Amino acid sequence: MTQKIKKAALCALVAVATSLSAFTVYAQERLSLSLQQAMDLAVERNNTLANAALDVRIAKANKWAAIAAMLPQITGSGDYSNFLGYEMDLRGMTIAMPPYVTLGLRSSITFTPAMLVNAQISDISGKMSDITLKQSEQEITNQVKTLYLSALVSDEVLLLLERNLECLQRLHEMTMTSVRVGASEQTAADQIAVQVAQLQNSISSSKRALEMTYNSMRLLLDVDVDTQIALTDTLDRLMTLDDYMGLIGEEFDMERNYTWQLAQKSTELAKKQLDATIMGSMPSLSAYHQYSYKEYLSKDANVMNMTPPNMVGATLSVPLFTSLQQTKKVQAARMTYEKQKNTMHDTEQQLQVQHSQLCYNLSTAYDTYNAQKQNLEVTQRVFDNISQRYEHGYSSAMDLTNTGTTLINAQSTYVQSIMEFLNARIALEKLLNK
């Protein structure tokens, strides 16, 4: 009876463990993403972009604050005063000074030419924040694109390596069988075993690199570390010749480039700051209207009210002498503006050179990719041919291992050529703001 109870309890524990394991696997989130979906998700969830978006809103708020400073301002006030029974003696006439309350409204407006320029500066700063936001989005999407394509390349390499490993393992087993019956030497089997071990190490290294790529993608997408990511796009579709030729032949519109836009806005900002400094020596005008209502908290008729209910005023302020302080400020601002114009010119020259260089890099990388792809296809055919010849006894184990080493090197070079092509393409797309 006790044995039956123990057996039933054991079965129950196994069932619970199985259920929990199944629940854990089911609970793991799985994301199936195209390249565009991955980029959109990264932009949506990235905290750096969220902060950049807040900077845009802050800049807009500062812009309207600068504009509002030039508009009328209205201030309300209330006052209570009590002289504690004191009475004023005015040449024998006693004047009571009872407690009183005063309610007032004051409207004022102040304008200086510098205030207008400061509002324009705030507007430029807002536009620069918006450009920076777009530039940050571009950086994030390019990072996702690089990781996405790297993962696809790694997947393709793993398939090639695993297929070759299966072939070598089969040949190794065949060789060991021949060794056992005395038809082959042990050294032949050992040579193939070394080749198998090298391929296994390459596969393990590729898998670790692929997992690191997925982890980096999880960070950018802001998803849990256990989230399984499935890539729905293919490498062939993302590496089309038409896109490549279109990028090479596209005319460089510099005004679309975010680096140029920021440099241009920085130049415009330096000019406005120079204008604001010049305007600092211009006259300023302020005007106000004040309304006051005074109520005495006493029924004594002998009270003197000297507070006028309405009052207006205006002030014109003209700087006359600042001991050359303002002059030197204008000189410094003008030199800063000249520096920024030089920087703008250098930026344009650098972007033109960069465009030519990136087009050359992409063209070279594409030619290299095609050459390495053909080389890999040829090397793969040679390896398959040597494998078949070895299987039928027409090639030696040394031929097989040498061909296998050549194939591994060709695969490594092929992967490197793909990544160089993709990186060159992404760099040109970034420059063209595609």
Summary?
By secondary structure, this protein is α+β, with helices and mostly antiparallel strands. It has 10 helices and 8 strands. It has helices spanning 2-27, 35-45, 47-68, 113-180, 186-221, 235-238, 241-249, 258-279, 325-391, 397-432, and strands at 30-33, 73-81, 87-90, 93-96, 100-111, 228-231, 284-296, 310-317.
> How far apart lie the N and C ends?
76 Å
Provide the residue-averaged pLDDT.
Answer: 85
Largest sheet: 4 strands, antiparallel
Helicity level: 55-70%
CATH topology of the largest domain: Outer membrane efflux proteins (OEP)
- CATH H-level name of the largest domain... which superfamily? Outer membrane efflux proteins (OEP)
Give the overall shape. Answer: elongated
Tell me the name of the CATH class of the largest domain: Mainly Alpha
Overall strand count:
8
Radius of gyration: 40 Å
Strand percentage, roughly?
5-15%
The count of helical stretches stands at 10
Which spans of ≥5 residues are poorly predicted at pLDDT below 50? 4-27
Spatial arrangement of strands, main beta sheet:
2-5-7-8
Which structural category do the helix and sheet elements fall into? Answer: alpha+beta
* H and E order: HEHHEEEEHHEHHHEEHH
